[in-house]
Each structure stands twice: as C-alpha cells, then as structure tokens.
Amino acid sequence: MASGGPSPREGRKRKKKSDGSLRGKSGNDESQVQADIDTLTSSGHSALKRGDCAEALICFKKAYKAAVEIKETKVHRACAFNLGAAYVEAGKPQKGLEFLRKAQPGERRERVADLQYNLGVAHEALGDQAQAAGHYLQAAQLYRSQGDGSSEGDTCMKLARCHLRMKDCSHAAQVFQRAAESYRVAGRLDSAAVALKEATTHMLQCDSFSSEDIITMLSECLELSVSITDQHILGKLYNELGLSFSQLKLFAEASECYEQALPLVRPKPRRLAVVLQNLGAVHNTLGQYQQALDFHREAAALHGSQGSRRAQGRCFSNLGFAHSQIGELEEAGESYLHALQAFKDTEDHMGQWQACEGLGEIRLQLRDPDKATVYYKQALGVLSKCKDSDGSVQERLVNRLSEALQLRLSLQQRAPAARRANQDRNFYRQPRRVPDMNGGEPYQGRPLRKNQLNDHKAENGFLVGAAASSSGADGEQRPHGETVMLHTQSNSNPGAPHTQQPDYLSMLPEANRQGHTCGHTHT
C-alpha cells in the first residue's frame, strides 16, 4: 500500500461503518458521505499529480464504493470516470475501460470530451489504434466546440500518433498541423512549433505535399521557435529542423539550424555528439572539408566516451571522406580503418563493406593494387551477408576489383622492362630514360569527388540511416553517418554524408494529459 494512505484498520472500520447502509440515513449523513467522497477524490488527484498511481487508485476506489451507496447518479458517474482514468494511468487499460463505460455522459458536455479522450487513451494502450483514433477525433471536435484549444491540441497530437502507427503518414501530418493551429489559438506557441516540426517530418515521408508547402511550414516553425524557452526542447527542435532541410537538399539552411542547436546541447554529451556529427556531414556535403574535420573528430570522441561504437564508426568514416577530399590519403586510410573496426565490433555488415570499399579506393589512389584487391574482396564478402543489398552495389564493387587487378597486372608486366633498362644502363654506363620507377605514369584511379544527398526515405516515425563510405556507380566516394533520412546502400547512388537523429522519439509526452487522465471531480 502506498505511503500516506489509511491504515488497514482504518479501512476496515470505514467499511464496517458503510455496511450499515446509507440508504436509511438522514440527509446529514449523506452530506457527510458526499464530503468524504470529495476529500477522497481530491486526494486521488493529488496522488496522480505526484505520480503515485497506487495511492490514487486507493482513494478513487473508496470514493467509488461510497458513491454506490448514495442515490446521486451524477456522483456515481464521476467516481467511475475518475477510477477508470486512474486505472488507465496505472497501466491497466482493460480495467479502466470497464469503469469508463460506466461513466455515461451526463448533462455537462465538458465531461463528454474528457471521457472520449480517456477512452482513446485506454484503447491506445490496448493496441487498438483505430478505436483510439475514433475516440480522440470525437474528443478533439468537442474541445474545439468548447473553445478549449489547448486540450484540442493535446488530443490532436495523440490522434496523429495513432495514424502513424496505422502507417498513414499523410493523415498524421495533417493532424499535426491541426494541433499546431489549436496550440497557436491557445497561445501555446512553443507547443505549436513542436507540432509543426512533427508535421514537416512526416510531410517529407509521403508524396502528398510539395516542397514549397514543406518549406513554408519549416519557416513558420522557425518563427515560432523564438517563443521556446526550454533549451532542451529548443536544441532538439533545431537539430530536427536541420535534418528536414537536409532532406530538401537545403544544406546551407541545415547548417544554420545545427549551428543554433550546438550551444543548446553542450550540457548533454550524447546529444552534442549527434549535432557535431550532423554539422560535419553537412560541411562534407557543402564541400567544406577542412571545416568538417574538427566536427568529425569531436563527434567521434564523444560517441566513444558514451559507448556509441556504431555512431563512432560513422564519424570516422565521415572523417576519412573529408581527409580524402583534401588529398590527405594516409589520414583518410587510418580513419577508414578505425571505422571498419567499429563496424566489426558492432556487427554492422553494411558499415563494414562500405569502409572496405573506401579503403580499397584509398589504396588505389596510393598505387597499391594488392591491398586494394584485398579490401574490395572483403567488401564483396561482407555485402553477401546484407539482406537488402542491391545488385548495382555488387556490380560496382566487382568493377572496382577488376580495375585493381588490371592495375596489378599492368605493374607486374612493366616491372621486368624497368629492370632490363636498369641493367642496360649499368652495362653501357650510359644514362637511359626510365618513364617511372614502376614502368609507367602514376595510377590516378577515379578521383574522389563531392556527392549530393538523394534517395532519402523515412520509416516508422523514427528513422535510422545507413552509413556510407563508398564509391557510387560513377566511382564517387561517399562519407558516412546515421540519419533520419534513411539512405540505404542498395541504391544505385549510395554513400551520401549522413546525419544522425538523437535517442528520442518525440518532443511531446505520450502519457495521458494530467487534466484528462484524472478527469474532473464531479460531486
């Protein structure tokens, strides 16, 4: 039994007292019972606000039992309503439904909206998203008719998430927009900004909205963000807006959002690592490789200190790409080796073959076809373990392996000629011109070039991206990362720089709104 509740002895005494039947008692006695119900109900609401569901259930149960003994049906409905909502909050939705159904609508319509809301919460907890959505929709309409924009907004957020679970991202995006409008009317501008952010995130996942519509929504969200005072929420918001701008290939705007998020997330090392990783990736995409280096290094160090080995591997791969673009091939190879080990530690097969492909490309640039051949063979071997691999990726790797083998053969064939030339020069003691130590011009391979993000996809509201450190179909090498823009490496143009989503699903609480969870006290 939760602390602060009546002792068992007191409970038994109270029950014995009530067993005397209140039906034959005077009005004064009924008034005393009514006062007891009010006290118990108030105590129950206070317990819920403290998060003490056990104590709340004790209070509401006693209130309900007392209400059964008096003739006032309105009080009985109110107590059933409160007890049902408390059961839902305590994680017992089926039991909660039993009592919520007993709370038939009375003459006060504000209770109808609360009842519909709590019924929605119960069905949602039971996994019946369609039923929950129906109740939430009724509640939202009733709240609007009452001019309660705040409650309407909260209900729309719940409704939108039901649509997401039913894989209807288009409808969910529209409901998020409605939530933003309701919050704006209620003066909750910070909540409106978050709702708009959710809307744009899911607008990007379906074909029902134009880029112009999404950009307009993002701009409105940025305007509303100035009203957010909570730095934790604001930092997450700017990071997610940056991801949305990246999906639209508006990388300059994405960079600005990440820059704004940076000082806000500094107290949170894990979130700071994510924003630094995103900043490095977007600088890679903009071709600002020198500026990107420090972001990659700091992000890799932070991910390592937080035990996020896989994310650390993606940062090392991004770092390798940046080094390769400014001609620092040895440093690039070292970074790719760190990435490869991280992916092996986390059994990330996709990351492994991409790192191997990057290493193969570096070894070709360094005129080392033997090692390049080894890495391309490793990449093909690991690729075969990836379930979602694309035939175009395998074809690209085979082509690069073929080029490495051809280079090795060419060097082997030219080596005897170079040795004979040296022998002739020594024999005649006359200088002979040798084109190259290995008999030819240095192998240039395919130049590492900047790539653009494309083929961005979203999945189930929370998106995890594949890292990329590979060359595309045209030989372009790509950096690595983790992103809300799912960029599978089975695509024909793989390997764009990736950004990462932090470890959270939503900026809004999924639990029942406190005012509606508890319902209203009716006596």
From TrEMBL:
<dbReference type="Pfam" id="PF13424">
    <property type="entry name" value="TPR_12"/>
</dbReference>
<feature type="repeat" description="TPR">
    <location>
        <begin position="273"/>
        <end position="306"/>
    </location>
</feature>
<dbReference type="Pfam" id="PF13181">
    <property type="entry name" value="TPR_8"/>
</dbReference>
<feature type="region of interest" description="Disordered">
    <location>
        <begin position="413"/>
        <end position="449"/>
    </location>
</feature>
<feature type="compositionally biased region" description="Basic and acidic residues">
    <location>
        <begin position="18"/>
        <end position="28"/>
    </location>
</feature>
<dbReference type="InterPro" id="IPR019734">
    <property type="entry name" value="TPR_rpt"/>
</dbReference>
<keyword id="KW-0802">TPR repeat</keyword>
<feature type="region of interest" description="Disordered">
    <location>
        <begin position="1"/>
        <end position="35"/>
    </location>
</feature>
<protein>
    <submittedName>
        <fullName>Tetratricopeptide repeat protein 24</fullName>
    </submittedName>
</protein>
<dbReference type="InterPro" id="IPR024812">
    <property type="entry name" value="TPR_24"/>
</dbReference>
